[in-house]
């Protein structure tokens, strides 16, 4: 494994450079579309940039996920990095996310730590409703409330931070709804994804750490923890289904989700999480292509 870089200070500058480059590519693409349009209007539509879509982002290229910069994704905000932490309850992700946050801060990164449900004024109010043990709730109401809190969190906390080119570490995000409501509550992964996308408009994290824990260990840890919320109080069968849901997502999105064995010691889990995040953010890797390469809607030009 590549040596993890000790400091990520140069990262923000490099990200900015790449984003400036991406903006240039878009402008060139637009000019190219116009040129073609003068020749034949039908061509112009083929090459016209789609508003709000980027042809590649810095991390797609640098992380090697999209070495040729051909991937497009609906991303209203191209800068910054969103990293989510997911998993069953008691998997140690909350402690791990705090450690990663402290480490990045120490390294001088511009980073924020947030959570779901919650992370903004209104979303925190929805959180209270969702986790209150005195509430009983229809499963679809529950799914809608998680989706509503996520939309609010996205627009009032996550996107503004990404606009400022910050690194956003988020304790749970969409995958939790897919696993808990989609699989755990039997509402269906596809249905929950569609429901959430009304609010998310396709916005996804750059990287997701999945803290994998078997439901038996989970139950043991939750018992030790005490003070259980409404979802924690569900039985073993529910938590097994949630776990199955996360496994399905891991298989479905291997380019985005990385699994960590959360049955290991707290220290080991924290170290692994920190190493993965640092490696992901480490821009000291060789750039996969010359910076002046032209990417035009999936076509590469010299
Ligand atoms: P929290 O106390 O934040 O739990 P944890 O420390 O395990 O993250 O409570 C959040 C609970 O809400 C947790 O049991 C998982 C559940 N949840 C969902 O069911 N759907 C979702 O979309 C999210 C974000 C969380």
- The assembly state of the depicted protein chains is single chain
Radius of gyration: 21 Å
How does the overall form come out from the CA principal axes? globular
Low-confidence stretches at least 5 residues in length (pLDDT < 50)?
1-15, 47-78, 283-302
Mean pLDDT: 77
Helix content: 40-55%
CATH architecture of the largest domain, by name, is: 3-Layer(aba) Sandwich
The H/E string reads HHEHEEHEHHEHHEHHEHEE
Query: How many domains would you count in the coordinates?
Result: 2
Number of strands: 9
Helix/strand/pairing category: alpha/beta
Bound molecules: thymidine-5'-diphosphate
Largest sheet: 5 strands, parallel
- The name of the CATH superfamily of the largest domain reads P-loop containing nucleotide triphosphate hydrolases
Strands of the largest sheet, in order across it? 4-5-3-6-7
The first-to-last residue Cα distance is 33 Å
Q: How would you describe this protein?
A:
This protein is of the alpha/beta class and 302 residues long. It contains 11 helices and 9 strands. The protein has helices at 10-39, 41-47, 58-62, 93-106, 121-131, 139-163, 174-184, 189-200, 215-225, 236-252, 266-281, and strands spanning 53-54, 73-74, 81-87, 111-115, 167-171, 207-212, 257-261, 294-296, 299-301. The chain has a 5-stranded parallel β-sheet with strand order 4-5-3-6-7, with helices on both faces. A hairpin with a 2-residue loop joins β8 and β9 (299-301). The longest helix is centred in the N-terminal third of the chain and has 30 residues, at 10-39. The chain binds thymidine-5'-diphosphate. The site of thymidine-5'-diphosphate has 15 residues, from α7.
